[in-house]
Amino acid sequence: MAGGTPSDLRVYPVSPIITKFIGASYQQKESVWAQASPVTHISAATPPFFLYHGTWDRLVYVEDSIAMQRALQQAGVPVELDLLHGSGHITTFLFGFGAEAAGIDFLDRYLRPY
Fold first, then answer.
1. Is residue 1 pLDDT above 90, yes or no?
2. What are the DSSP E strand ranges found in the chain?
3. According to a count of CB atoms within 10 Å of the terminal CB, is the N or C end of the chain lower?
4. CA dihedral in degrees (25, 31, 34, 36; nearest 10)?
5. Strands 49-54 and 79-84, how do they pair?
6. Does 45 have pLDDT greater than 70?
7. 10 CB contacts (<8 Å, ≥6 apart)?
8. Cα(12)–Cα(18) distance, rounded to whole angstroms?
9. What is the number of structural domains in the chain?
10. pTM for the predicted model, two decimal places
11. What is the per-residue pLDDT for 114?
12. What's the CATH code of the domain at 56?
């Protein structure tokens, strides 16, 4: 379960936060930025994913979650993306708008058999 997740760090090449996290700028270590991006590690063995994202998120682009969803679908991984219309990055996490319950339902469907 992931909410408002920056799944491809390469989309944010001038981010001071990611630069500090990686320890080098995008221009200095493009391959490390790719390796640190969850979207580059998807395979058929990836577990089911529930994603949620506020459509007014200005910190992490909603397109990032949409791209993650597509990559998971292409790998044949069960995925669900809950778009929270009119919610920003912080409000999504403060209020949830039902995303937590939807995520628990999703995980229950896929993990209960185990």
1. no
2. 2-3, 49-54, 79-84
3. C
4. -70
5. parallel
6. yes
7. 26, 30, 33, 34, 37
8. 8
9. 1
10. 0.88
11. 67
12. 3.40.50.1820
